[in-house]
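Researcher: Please translate sequence to structure tokens.
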Amino acid sequence: ITITTEDAEGNIDTSAASVQVTHQSVAASFPDANNRFSNIRSGGISLDSTNNRLVVSDFDEVFAVNLSTGARDVLIASGSIEDPIKRVEVDEVAGRMYITAYELSSSFIYSANSDGSGLMAIDESPAAKNYPHGMKFSPFDGRLYITDTQQVYSIDPADSSVLFEAVPADFTIFGPRGLDVVAANSILLAEFEEQG
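Model: Translation complete:
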């Protein structure tokens, strides 16, 4: 990628900056013979810039990948979480991470310290849990926003209280998969819709 700049007088610099972008798998980018990846999910990667690492979920484990060295450390070991992990989200301010894990018969949302200790399920109303696909921690209100089958809700990690987000009456959510909290009271959704 080459960046071109133009100043107020119209002077153009065609090589103001450049960066090389390489595309390869996470396993190839960060090789580690001791802690191998087996099944990374697309939503299972979260940047933890405070600790210069990626937090990566791999089936039923969570790793920290050092961005400088590529070394991997196991944060949550295999067997600690029963269902396959789908998403991981880092709250850098509080030093916490949040994890969604589900199969057809069960789904859970977990919280843990950034070093993997203190793993616990966040209890919420059974009506709130189906298939928590998307998850994003909001630095604006300290809540964890979750997309689920035809709904969006948030959880307060401090007391596990659930708040179902209001959706306009003329708007139908079919299968939200991802979300981002871009400002206070402003959420972007990515939906999945089957084409028949």
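Researcher: Any highlights?
Model: The mean pLDDT is 78.
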